[in-house]
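SEQUENCE-TO-STRUCTURE ENTRY
===========================

Backbone structure tokens: a row of integers, each naming the local backbone shape at its residue.

Task: work out the structure tokens from the sequence, keeping to the layout shown below.
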Amino acid sequence: MYSSQQSNVVSAYGAFFQGWAWDHFATLTFARKQSQANCLRLYNAFIQSLGRTTLGRVGWVRVGEIRSSDCGSPEIPLHFHALLKYKNVPPPEAVAALWKAKAGDAQVEAYRAGGGGAVYVAKMLPYEDTNYDMGGLEYFPRSEGSPIRGSSN
């Protein structure tokens, strides 16, 4: 359970992430246990491959999730939740196949605005050891109704 402050963090990041009209929500796992540094290298290579495959820019938010085994619950190894935005949108199956060829298993689905994906991606952000990043978003304007609007280039 979250404290009220942690709930506010999840809600604020969720609202911020909802500012883009995302194309895909993805859960990306690894075929075997690897260092966090190697997992990040694989993700970065995946994003570069997506750009080459789609012949365009890719905007993304990535949050790592890992849980140690405590209180009798099983360990959940490092995996990523991601929101993806493209200039040229590929089918979810093609995105999943690209990840599977590089790293492990993937569940990729069309993003549904209001479906909870942006908040779900934000769920680990209240914890200080959470690894997250975003990139390419400067190439995609925020939605008109988003609560935080940046300047457009």
